[in-house]
Every structure is written in structure tokens, then in C-alpha cells.
Specification:
Layout lengths: L14 H19 L8 H15 L3 E10 L21 E11 L2 E11 L3 H24 L3 H15 L2 E2 L6 E2 L25 E8 L6 E7 L6
Antiparallel strand pairs: 1-2, 2-3, 4-6, 5-6, 6-7
Helix pairs in contact: 1-2, 3-4
Length: 223
Amino acid sequence: MTLDHREAVGGRFDPVLMQEARRLSWAALHGIRERMQPGISEDEARAQAAEVFSDLGMERLWHPVIIRIGPNTTRTYRQRSLPDVRLGENDIYFIDLGLVFNGHEGDVGDTFAVGHAPERQACAQAARDLFRDVAGKWSNEGLSGHTLYNYAHERAEAMGWRFNHAIKGHRVSDFPHSVHQGGDLGDFEHNPSRGLWILEIQIAHPTEPFGAFYEDLLADPAH
């Protein structure tokens, strides 16, 4: 029994398989990270990602592979990347994956800096730290999705970063979650149930053209 129709799941939903999809999605993300070398373009990185997915036995994508490099890290998933951007020697990029394994949806994202780029490294780490801060508030205090995103905004500003309000998290489930019309986590007025919602965090430097992204399932730590 769920609190809200937006937390409905399909007849084949299995929490264990959700966790396995999560684990394999993180494995895929780190497999792509190993292939991200200076000079690579976003298109080339996506092409190499297909090899990683095949090795892990991915069934399908449930959203396109998103890899953003440099100034494109400030853009949301709905915005097109600036063309002809390649990873520099001292640069930043993020990976956002929506993959299906065993009929269940994984959705993970993380940001990495390469070379000597201390501000970019700090931004990537800040996105992770902010995610863990907000996820901890959910786990410890049982706050609504709406309240969690208000808290995330306040904390991001206190940390010195711009917070992207267009990114509000969403449902996952047995594929496809879209039939349940779960909407955005940031608009959910209940305490989100464990293992059903993705918390997304996107921040940017207040003046420079780079940012960071991190997302994972609201559940026990995956890794």
C-alpha cells in the first residue's frame, strides 16, 4: 500500500531487482568514466558507453545517455549541448544514465574533474556532498519531496553555489515508470517512500561556466 497514487508500481516490481538495477547502473557509469580522456567529445563518449552497456547486459535505455563536458555541465537534460565541445586537460564533465536491467529502472549521475582543476573538483564534490546532506534529511526526518528541495536550495546557496531549480527529481519503478504519472519529487507533498524516487542535484559556479550533477535512488547507500 502506498501513500499516494504517484507511488504506484507494476505487478512485476521487486525491490531487490531495483537495487540490482541501481548497482549495475553505477557500474556502467564508472565504466564510462574509465574511458573519459582529454580530447574526447560528448558524441564519442556516448558511442563508447554502448560497449559498456553491452558488457553489463543492459536491456534498454529508458532515457537517452547524457554526457556533458565543460560549459555544457550547466545545462539541463532538456537543453541541447553546445556543439564541438571536447574534454580539456583541466576540465569537468558529468554522466547521467537511465538504464533498464531485469525490467527495472536505474538512474544515476555523477561529476568528475580531470587534470589540475581545483575549482571544478570542488564543484563536483559539492554536488555529492549536497546530495548526501539532503538524502540524510530525508532518511532522518521524513520530510516531503517539496521540503527536501527547498532545503537543497538553501544549502547550495550557503555552500556558495547556484542551485538549478529546473531539476526536481522523479520516480523510478519497473519499466516504464511513466505509466504511474509520478511527477517530480520536488512537487511531492508526502515523505517519499524508500526505493522509488530519484533525488537529483544540479549546481553551478556563481560566475564561471561550469557546474556539477549528482543523482541516485533515495534508499540505503549503494556504494
